[in-house]
């Protein structure tokens, strides 16, 4: 069974600083998608960024970027210039067969003013 | 606006009662999913459906049932057989190609 592991239950960052959230996964497939979702206090899940495994270039969306290491099965999220609105629970997810997503346990990010 | 609507947002139920959570989407997505979220455990897949009149069990299907009679609708019934039903339930849909999920706002079920 595929597993996704987020080893940091909680992280904190000062406003305007950079923070990196870690994620590792386990799969035997060669082509798949990886995602980072954000869940603010409203509980609405929002897609932050997506990475296709066959693409070597790391995905970037404005202040959010990933460090995708396929051989190491690592998929970390970097948030630059952190803002108060970035405070949320962040979930790493991997697409499995049948377009199912397997989620990690989440990392609660606090942004300090 | 296109999106996913879940109702009710909050639901209380007595032990031994079945309850049905509604999920409707107007995104014209083929695939729909139900996830359960408990504190510290992330999201776990209950059931999913990739096409009308067909659905598959996820990782924690015991005590739950679903139907998919229309493309737009994927209701989840939490039966009295579910031993620990108090949780936050999230419905999602996807086009099915990229794997990206679009989520509803969730339903919080509390068993009294």
Describe this structure in words.
The complex is a heterodimer of chains A (113) and B (112). With 113 residues, chain A is mainly beta. Chain A has strands at 3-5, 10-14, 19-21, 24-26, 33-39, 46-52, 60-61, 64-69, 74-79, 88-96, 100-103, 107-112. In chain A, the strands form 3 sheets. In chain A, strands 2, 5, 6, 10, 11 and 12 form a 6-stranded mixed β-sheet that branches. In chain A, strands 3-9-8-7 form a 4-stranded antiparallel β-sheet, with no helix packed on it. A two-stranded antiparallel sheet of chain A has the order 1-4. Chain A has no helices and 12 strands. Chain B has 112 residues and is mainly beta. Chain B is globular, with a radius of gyration of 13 Å. The termini of chain B are far apart. In chain B, 37% of the residues are buried. The chains are: A mainly beta (113), B mainly beta (112).
The sequence of SSEs of chain B as H and E is EEEEEEEEEEE
Could you give the order of the helices and strands of chain A?
Answer: EEEEEEEEEEEE
As residue ranges, the low-confidence spans of chain A are: none
Gyration radius from CA atoms of chain A, angstroms: 13 Å
Based on secondary structure, the structural category of chain A is: mainly beta
Estimate the global geometry of chain B from the Cα principal axes.
globular
Query: What number is the mean pLDDT of chain A?
Result: 93
Q: Report the helical percentage of chain B.
A: under 10%
Largest sheet of chain B: 7 strands, mixed
Radius of gyration of chain B: 13 Å
Residue stretches of chain B low in confidence (pLDDT < 50, at least 5 long) are none
Shape of chain A: globular
SSE-based structural type of chain B? mainly beta
Summed up, the helix count of chain B is 0
**What is the number of strand segments of chain A?**
12
Largest sheet of chain A: 6 strands, mixed
Helix fraction of chain A, binned, reads: under 10%
Question: Would you report the number of β strands of chain B?
Answer: 11
Mean pLDDT of chain B: 92
Strand proportion of chain A: over 45%
